[in-house]
Amino acid sequence: MKIYDEIIKKLNKSIECSYTQTLHIHMNNWPDNDGDSIVFVPDMAYELGAASMPSISIQMMTTDHSLVKDNEILLIGKDIGQIKEDTPYARIIQLLVDEDAILLDDTIYDSIKCIQHSKYHVHPYGFMTRISVNSYREQVRVSREAVRKGLNFSKIGAAYIKQYCIHKAVKAVRVIFITSLDYDYIELEKLARQSAAITEALDHALKEFRFNGSDFNFKELL
User: Fold this and answer.
1) Sign of torsion, CA 67 97 162 191?
2) N or C end of the chain, less CB within 10 A?
3) pLDDT at position 132, please?
4) Per-residue burial over 110-149, b = 16 or more CB atoms within 10 Å of its CB, e = otherwise
5) Are 67 and 8 in contact (CB under 8 A)?
6) Which 3-state string (H, E, C) describes 163-211?
7) Parallel, antiparallel, or unpaired for β 55-62 and 89-97?
8) Among 129, 135, 63, 123, which Cα is nearest to 94's?
9) Is residue 175 within 8 Å of residue 91, measured between CB atoms?
């Protein structure tokens, strides 16, 4: 899966120019609402990626171990407990996947789609994510109670890692959160648009492979 590699390289270079914190991975350390993570406005501490602010979500895969080496959580900007008002937000997922595991799967289409949809199955308590299916925007309402109880991006990142690693083809997950007011969100949005276009093309190719597998060389995409 090399089709996202150039975007990952550009993104990683951008991150290297910013003050980046590496967070501890707290596995199984925050309750999940099992799909019911509604945070009402009166209970909200603030919103990440509020309507008038940058709000970006990017998800990419690679088979290159030099790009994504291990499970990792990075933060550029303030952590959840340090934020006091609505702020820009970006969440980036970079996945190291096993090419052989995907190609050996009898249901390649379903396998990759399940990996892609993992982000919809993370529902941390007090962290209500609103994802725009047809774009790269992602907004989050954070509850005052969750902030008071110690919710942080380390715990949120761990929840994403746990969900993605359910899939046997996923070997490592890199989660990047950005809340910095000074980050170049305009350039990040450009990368998000490119990534979204690639994902759309990949979805089309996967459907072709599913229905015309004998006539379609899926390996050319990897």
Assistant:
1) positive
2) C
3) 77
4) ebbeebbebbeebbbbbbbbeeeeeebbbbbbbbeebbee
5) yes
6) HHCCCCCEEEEEEEEECCCCCCHHHHHHHHHHHHHHHHHHHHHHHHHHH
7) parallel
8) 63
9) yes
Residue 64 exposed, middle or buried by CB count within 10 Å (0-12, 13-18, 19+): middle
Q: Which two tokens stand for residue 47?
A: 């919103």
Which residue's structure tokens are 């790269």? 136
Residues 131, 155: Cα–Cα separation, whole Å = 19
For the segment 42-100, what is each residue's pLDDT rounded down to a tens digit?
999 999 999 889 999 999 999 999 999 999 999 999 999 999 999 999 999 999 999 87
| Cβ–Cβ under 8 Å, residues 97 and 3 | no
Instruction: List the structure tokens of 60.
Output: 């990419």
* Residue showing tokens 């550029």: 76
